[in-house]
Amino acid sequence: MAVAGCTKCIKYMLFFFNFIFWLAGGIILGVALYLRHDSQTSNLLILQFEGQQAPGTFYISVYILIAVGAIMMLVGFLGCYGAIQESQCLLGTFFFFLVILFACEVAAAIWGFMNRDTISKELINFYDSAYIKAVDVSGSPSKDSAIKVLDVFHTTLDCCGKGDDTALFEQVKGTLCPRKSREDFLRSQSCHDKLIELFSEKLYVIGLAALVVAVIMIFEMIFTMVLCCGIRNSPGVY
Length: 238
What we know:
The chain is mainly alpha-helical.
């Protein structure tokens, strides 16, 4: 027998929140795919120098987002169907998946907070290793490949150097940043600052998406429990 009164209102509110949850899953999936194929990050993270690949820690969070977005769409559909059908079994399964997703999101948030500076630091270290070889006046065998790596950084981020304008840097900056005029050098930021800025923006987007999803999930868990209790207590349900 169909629920009535306030429980019926909860039923449609749960359906509405599940539909928003499903849409949020699609948006997160789209944002994650955008971050995965964004030209700035892709150009930097595909680089190789002296047999070492550029650190790909950033992609771990992106792949997690892709998985979460896909699962959210599936779970959101399950919740919508369970609410309309007033099925305790489907709603119970939906609640179980919500709890698992919420726990995973909290764990991912803790990991992200603890490693929030790791991504930019790893790429800064990668940049510095190429920078040292590129400014080496003794002419190391890997100097040409180091200059090519730095060129990708400088072109992608519109930056030049580490920010410490040493005498050695002044001698080689025409080679490291051939596309920049004297005025451009005065206006340009260091690549260290640009890397920190780039990944801070990306992680901010990821954190904001996670916060919105967490709020929606809390409301859904509350409404699911209320609706299940309402269905159990409805006349004709034993």
